[in-house]
Amino acid sequence: MSSLHKIGVFVCWCGSNIAATVDVAAVAEAMRAEPNVVYATDYQYMCSEGGQSRIREAIKEYGLTGVVICSCSPRMHEATFRKAAQSAGLNPYMVEIANIREHCSWIHKDRMDATAKAIVLARTALAKLNLNQPLTAGESNVVKRALVIGGGIAGIQSALDIAEAGYEVDIVEKTPTIGGRMAQLDKTFPTLDCAACILTPKMVDAAQNEKITLYTYSEMESVSGFVGNFTAKIRKKARHVNEDLCTGCGLCQEKCPSRKAKNEFNMGLNTRTAIYIPFAQAIPNVPVIDTEQCIHFKTGKCGLCQMNCSAKAIDFEQQDEIIERQYGAIVVATGFRPISLERFDEFGYSQNPDVVTSLEFERIMNAAGPTKGQLVRPSDGKHPHCIVFVQCVGSRDTSGCGKPYCSKICCMYTAKHAMLVREKYPDVEVHVFYIDVRTPGKNFDEFYRRAVEQYDVDYIKGMVGKVSSHGDKLQVQGSDLIADKQIIIDADMVVLAAAIEPDPEVRKIATMLTASIDTNNFLTEAHPKLRPVESPTAGVFLSGVCQGPKDIPETVAQASAAAAKVIGLLAKDKLKRNPCVAHSDEMLCNGCSACEKVCPYGAISYMDKEFRVPGPKRTEIRRIAVVNEAVCQGCGACTVTCPSGAMDLKGFSTKQIMAEVDAICR
Amino acid sequence: MQRVIEIIKEKAGKLLADGTVDRVIGWKDGEFFYDPTPAVFSAGELENLRYDSFCGANVSKYLIAETKKEGKILALLKPCDTYSFNELVKEHRVDRDKVYVLGIECRGKADINKIRDLGIKGIESIEELPGDELLVHTIYGDKTCKLNDVLLEKCLCCKSKTHVASDDLALTGEPMPEAPKDRFAMVAKLEMMTPDERFEFWRGELSRCIRCNACRNVCPACSCLKCVFDNDASGVASKANADTFEENMFHIIRAFHVAGRCTDCGECSRVCPQHIPLHLLNRKFIKDINEFYGEYQAGADTTSRGPLTDYTPDDVEPSIVMKRGGDQ
């Protein structure tokens, strides 16, 4: 087969991206001397129309059976070049890319070395191409329904937009209500409108939209399948309150004698009952029983809520329900939480109730919060006269205690808090310790300047070293880097702008979806610039802070962008399948099940098959693996697990990879 | 007190007679007195069945072929053999329903070379004495030695005296010998070497390999219908064999193939005619797996997922390989 190949090699300059470091003409020259290569050339921009037409013309003129493109990463332009080859009558899977940009010119300085390496990479692609087989992509249907994981503002916005386009959407939210973090906020920067006023109408829209189904107090159990055909199992946890019967009157909450549970919505600053609605505008407006707190569940007694419920909605026997559904696309909108401040003992957060996080402060300032919006100290309920805000608590932290990244929202909300305090209580002195104030964004810097210039907030460049209790004061020791001196402030309250991190659930979800996450647990986008709302896993899209720190306007914009991608996908009736899938050689398969165990897509099953064997019995039954090509995503986990080498991947066969290694070692 | 062999023969005889099983797999005399060979016995052939201090061979792998045949077979399995058996059942290589497992007592098996190393020459035959002592008849007269002083490498690190799979047991009830030594001591020593020293160690060992394939043939984890080394299409058959050492990357590839499935039965080293300590490669993998994913004993059961074919979000990141090991 290989001797019949006629291969063309096309070396791209990528302007100066490649050509400045790699002698592209020398690469083309070297490749011309390789067996099977009948044509080699270089061109300024291979991906441009001019470059593509060169490829098409060469395929026709030289009757090429395969094409090696030496260019950027295949993630960038493999599809472009495959399309070009196809339009000239070549099977698109007879195109191989040698990545001489990311893997070569961008990471080397020496022209000689880089050129030599580019030639090796081109030979490697050629070695693989010599063993390529033409492949044909099959088609699969698209289920016209989307799943949104997470019911915060990101999830709500994505769902509303997808529903607006006419597709069914389900939102899975693990807490008893949608709304997410935004529901906990008091005011929102830079316009200072109240979060509830702008969020709750959207929550109501989502609840009332015929196309949207809400699964609150529900968690993802499993996801299988692939783009256009995901199957998700959702665990609808038992609320112990019948959603259809409950009128949301709230009488059960009033009667509940168990009142010791920490109120999650108020960040544990006060308590709630065992049967509870998280907050007044919760959707659905249906309570849930916290079985760990409920006296009935603990002792079998009580049952006051049940006795008082005129709708007969309380159901102590209710069980978790598993809902299985098909989806064409999945949006991940799992959001964030503030980091735990356990490792930041210097601020005395765990020792002193008057040292609070910004999200706790948000609840204190909120009219529906634990203090009814009165600014008082959690310890003694007294009005504070001096508040110190500390920014970057755990953000931009390379010590290992916190997070290396900037949490992005803290500069703005700290300015907001400082301003709101000064506006409402002009007698309160406000100091803000900062490393840098970062306020890019429309009307953001103006907002911060207002805090400094109009509201006289004292911004101190420097970090706080220690917060300690002195009587009923908090002694804040910090450094003022501009005045170059150590300062001590006797404060009544300290507010820590804790870094934000992705909700830890995202690890579980990412594993289910085989979506990749980075070292900080943020979901990875398919391309940081050009595909920022798509996960590298086809059919999975990213919305909100699960992808990286964002404020509300950015989150909403990304949520809509993710929705646009979902709509684009669901609008298609058929999808081309990836033909690079696994297949098992039944003559070599031992039936050991190793491949089945590692397959993340559940694409492998087993069957008993009769084989002819030498000897008197003539046949024997053997257990062999069978790959469902419609489900296989070609990840190759099975091929490396198979001890006998029965499992192989079309387009990336073991032989091809060995040939590549040989070409590198030649 | 009844000897184990008598208990075995009694139980096997009954099972054959009442039709529970059709055949028995155990050991018969080999070419020399010290190399009993795995063999299958039908009813009436049991007088040739042998079980003594030299029956180190693990018969579990033979059950792959035996369970493809009609009828049920009685397998005589020592405690360590039952681990291999479980692993084969887990991998669907052995049909559990076609095997009746008789777990047999094992007090450790003797290594003829170690007897010779004691300076005992001209050995003609060996008898077992009570108290785990061996009476060696030689052309120079009788000598004795302690079984514990001449144990096979695999028995020095005996993993258990308890059977993890059995339908019945054949035990004498005598107290068992003492606990084994640390099986990872030599691996730890190798880890302490510099990469160059370690390379020299393995070059010295593996260069002796004659590629007789005895290790592969005896290994219960090497149960592929067709080995990748025999499959031209796999492209690994003769990858890098510029010198005798490179050729024996075979052993390293083989260790990778059985990683997570190797029960450390030690058969590879026992059968190696060149006395290459092949079990050390497997033990290195086992030690790493234990450290990375928590203690795991392959073959301890038939249902658990091996650490290398399982994933939990708490698994070590691949970068751990860079943090330790080769780059020291």
Please state the oligomeric state of the protein chains shown: heterodimer
Structure annotation, total helices of chain B: 13
Largest interface, with counts of residues having CB < 8 Å to the other chain, equals: A-B, 23 and 25 residues
Q: What radius of gyration of chain A results from the CA coordinates?
A: 31 Å
**Helical amount of chain B:** 25-40%
**Main beta-sheet strand count, sense and barrel state of chain B:** 5 strands, mixed
Number of strands of chain A: 34
Count of alpha/pi helices of chain A: 19
Shape of chain B: globular
H-E string of chain B: HEEHEHEHEEEHEHHHHHHHH
Structural class of chain B: alpha/beta
Unreliable stretches of chain A, pLDDT < 50, 5 or more residues?
none
CATH architecture type of the largest domain in chain A: 3-Layer(bba) Sandwich
Short descriptors:
heterodimer, A: 666 residues, alpha/beta, Rossmann fold, FAD/NAD(P)-binding domain, 5 domains, five-stranded parallel beta sheet, 19 helices, 34 strands, 25% strand, B: 328 residues, 3 domains, five-stranded mixed beta sheet, three-stranded antiparallel beta sheet, 8 strands, 32% helix, 13% strand
Structural description of this entry:
- The complex is a heterodimer of chains A (666) and B (328).
- Chain A is 29% helix and 25% strand.
- Chain A is α/β, with parallel strands linked by helices.
- Chain A folds into five domains: 2-129, Rossmann fold (3-Layer(aba) Sandwich); 160-229 and 322-335 and 508-570, FAD/NAD(P)-binding domain (3-Layer(bba) Sandwich), CATH 3.50.50; 251-308, no CATH class; 338-501, FAD/NAD(P)-binding domain, CATH 3.50.50.60; 582-650, Alpha-Beta Plaits, CATH 3.30.70.
- In chain A, helix 2 (24-32) runs parallel beside helix 6 (111-129), helix 7 runs parallel beside helix 16 and helix 13 (410-424) runs parallel beside helix 14.
- By secondary structure, chain B is an alpha/beta fold.
- Chain B folds into three domains: 4-109 and 163-170, no CATH class; 112-150, no CATH class; 185-323, no CATH class.
- In chain B, 32% of the residues lie in helices and 13% in strands.
- Chain B has helices spanning 4-17, 62-66, 79-90, 112-117, 153-156, 185-192, 195-206, 214-218, 244-247, 249-258, 267-271, 279-293, 320-323, and strands at residues 23-28, 37-41, 73-77, 99-104, 123-129, 133-138, 141-146, 168-170.
- In chain B, strand 6 (133-138) and strand 7 form a beta hairpin.
- The mean pLDDT of chain B is 89.
- Chain A binds chain B through residues 507-508, 511, 587-594, 597-598, 620, 623, 641, 643-645, 654-655, 658-659, and chain B through 68, 91-93, 223-228, 231, 233-236, 239, 257-258, 305-306, 308-311, 313.
